[in-house]
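User: structure tokens for this one?
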Amino acid sequence: MHEQVRELCTDCGPIDGIWFDHNFRQPSRIWRSKELVEMIRQLQPLAVINSSLGKDLRNNTALGDCFIYEQIDYERKLESLMLSVGY
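Assistant:
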């Protein structure tokens, strides 16, 4: 993943934000999250980074700029599905 993020940060011009949306089962050390954020900060210093950087960093801003509150509420999801209309 690091090389893909490096490519995005170097080949795509200015980036306003980087949003990680991955599996939270792995801790940040497996993702090498600290190294990843340092690379992004070096290449895209103005980019906002969310906190989806490992299960131990969920819901805090230890490395990212904003936290993403993740909580699965199945009753609420079901209610949302029942109230929505789709074609």
